[in-house]
Amino acid sequence: MNARTKALSGWAVLITAALVCALGGWSYAQARGDGTLSYAKARDAALADGRRHLARLNTMDGKDAGSVTAGLTAWLGSSTGALHDRLESTRKQDEVALTGSGATARGTVTDAALTALDERAGTAALIATVDVEVTERGGRAGTERRRFEATLARTGDGWKVKALDAIPVGGGA
After folding, report:
1. Could you give the residue ranges of the DSSP H alpha helices within the chain?
2. What percent of the chain has pLDDT over 70?
3. Has residue 8 been placed in a domain?
4. Which among 60, 131, 144, 162 could disulfide-bond with 153, CB atoms 3.0 to 4.6 Å apart, if both were Cys?
5. Which domain holds residue 78?
6. What CATH number does residue 89 fall under?
7. How far apart are CA 62 and CA 105, in angstroms?
8. Residue 25 lies in a domain
9. Residue 98's CB: how many other CB atoms inside 10 A?
């Protein structure tokens, strides 16, 4: 290989490297501004917040008044809109009914999916299966499987549950 061939192959490698870098930069810029990426992030945030809040809305410690008050406060923190208003309006009755019951319930979302997401409106629809482990005062425990359909709304604190409907677990015909 003579000096001229070495120089040309060096330039070819340099130009190829510059083109690869330019193509990589262009590709990164396209992906960064992609609306699909923004939508995926919103979907993931709504799903994660919905799962967390749905578990919290199925959890309560009725051992003492302080635990019940903390649980009801957590319920209010997980809700917004009409559901929040309803929970707030029944809070006093709920405190009386739950305090001293000795029962505890712990909800665990076992599966969930968004069925709709409207980023502009700030709403989402979620379906979920929740296992609720209930322990009564006497120590008797059991697990209930519940299914829910929830409407989520985006707030300043993330996505919260705006409406919650139980879906009957089918018995089949």
Report:
1. 3-32, 35-57, 65-78, 81-89, 91-98
2. 92
3. no
4. 162
5. 38-167
6. 3.10.450.50
7. 8
8. no
9. 21
Q: What is 80-124 written as a DSSP string?
A: -HHHHHHHHHTHHHHHHHHTT---EEEEEEEEEEEEEEETTTTEE
Q: Is-above-0.85 flag for pTM? A: no
| The two three-digit tokens of residue 17, written as one number | 């490297």
Q: How large is the average pLDDT for residues 9-29?
A: 80
As for how many domains the chain has, the answer is 1
List the end-to-end C-alpha distance of the chain, in Å, as a whole number: 84
Q: Helix axis angle, 81-89 relative to 91-98, nearest 10°?
A: 60
Residue 96 inside a domain? The answer is: yes
Quote the pLDDT of residue 15: 85
Burial 28-51 (b: 16+ CB within 10 A, else e): eeeeeeeeeeeeeebeeebbebbb
pLDDT band at 149 (very low <50, low <70, confident <90, very high): very high
pLDDT in tens, 60-115: 998 888 999 999 999 999 999 999 999 999 999 999 988 878 899 999 999 999 99
Examine residue 26 and state whether it is found in any structural domain, yes or no: no
Sheet holding 123-135, edge to edge: 60-61, 104-118, 123-135, 141-155, 158-167
